[in-house]
Amino acid sequence: MIIRFNRLLALGLFAGSGPAMANQSAPALPITLLLLVLLLIALSYIVVLKYRLWRALQPKPDMQGFYSLHDDISGFPNKFSLQRKLDDLLKSAPEQQFALILLKVEQFDQINQLLGHSNSNLILAQIAQRINDKLTDEDKILTYEYRQQQPVRVCHLGSVDFAIWLDVGSQPARAEFLARQLQQSVPQPMLVHGCAIDYQLGVGISLYPDHSTQFNELLERAYLALQHSQWHRSASMMFNSEMINYTTEKLALMAELRQAIDEDQLVLFVQPQMAMRNRQVLAAEVLIRWRHPKKGLLAPEAFLALAEEMGVIYPLTLWVLEQAVKTIASLLEQQLVSRIAVNISSKDLLQDELIEALEQLFDTYQVKPQLLMLEVSENALVAEPERTMAMLQRLHRLGVELALDDFGTGFSSLAYLRQLPVQYVKVDCSFISELHKTEAHIAITGAIIDMARNLGLGVIAEGVEGAEVEDKLLRMGCSRGQGFWYSQPFELSGFPAWLRQWQQRHPG
Description:
Layout: H1 2-10, H2 19-22, H3 28-57, H4 61-69, H5 79-92, E1 98-106, H6 108-115, H7 117-133, E2 145-147, E3 150-152, E4 155-158, E5 161-167, H8 173-185, E6 190-192, E7 195-197, E8 200-208, H9 215-232, H10 248-262, E9 266-275, E10 280-292, E11 296-298, H11 304-309, H12 313-333, E12 339-344, H13 354-365, E13 372-377, H14 385-398, E14 401-407, E15 424-427, H15 429-432, H16 439-454, E16 458-462, H17 467-476, E17 480-482, E18 490-491, H18 495-505
Parallel strand pairs: 10-12, 12-13, 13-14, 14-15, 15-16, 16-17
Antiparallel strand pairs: 1-5, 1-8, 2-3, 4-5, 6-7, 9-10, 9-17, 9-18, 10-11
Helix pairs in contact: 6-7, 12-13
């Protein structure tokens, strides 16, 4: 404003100075004009300031549109962008077959805890870019836009989930083929602050229109296929109608079971195995129960089969094995000796790290492997007999005792029982409990006992509930029994005290 005022002086709006002007009054017109000019300048300045402030407060139209269609972490198109694209695509090609490929970065929570949110977000953006880079030559994938002449073909659904929309034509298998390529090629270790960060991609696939014509339903079924693939470690990533049987209640129960392991809601009961002639305790089988905070005490039938079916059984088995080995160590400290028997499932036998886990337990608690007995169901040998046999051989070499549980209820193991590295067979309680009622059960049980003895195997009779059954078993040549006749199951924590009292009453 000072500069503008000086310019007015230079133009002659104010004339002269000093004594010559002292006695003269200034004309009124130039002063009025000056004030008017100054007022106009001030108003113009205020208008310019208000306009600039208004412009500064307005969101930039381009960025506002960008973030409504893109994920704010990775910068890749979001779920809304995919839905908008599909609305146009499916109107123009309603009969075409497509696949929704869902990709999930597994165990990303661990990366988050290790590196913090900022670094984890950077890694997530890099993973998204890696996925997109692998799709450059796949022209059958829905393209959202181009960046630096490169197609963008990945949708970031949010969190650690990404989606690809693939035109499969008449070959749905193309989706699984592409998904497996991504699983193998994308998860390369990332070096962050000197740490190599590893990750894996889980995959679930649903088909349009075979599985649904609604996007949200397709997405739900792709998630279901992904969960099914993770739980079962199965070969297929594709949704099928049988997966719908996994109700919300079942899924919630399995999530609660994982939590129950960490929160000590699980408890082990135990039932002794006796030498029937002198009542000496030879072993004790542990039986799991779940003290559910809302459902009360759940028997194994309420959750074990579902846990095995949905792939939650292995962490549960590891917990049981540790409790069993810890109990053996406690017995030894009290100068009490008894084997502890643990049931393991077919899924456990397919875990290569089972041997290492057992070796670590034996070393930690200073327990000999011979004091642990593992009971394997006969049906566990059916699914993958070669891998199961290999694991049984490794367990045998480790030194643990092996028993074939529920023997007589299946047929597969009869053909190669001689090859199995087991020391005992357990005759199923369905035969034993009816032993005193029908001749058929007597004949079957007798045949099983004779066959086992001829192979040099011990026999454990399960479900002994009375003196008459015990007497018949002894006459058949079976000397080892388990059942209510000797003891009902009770909590494992009370086993040392029970065993001491039992040995005092039955010194042998």
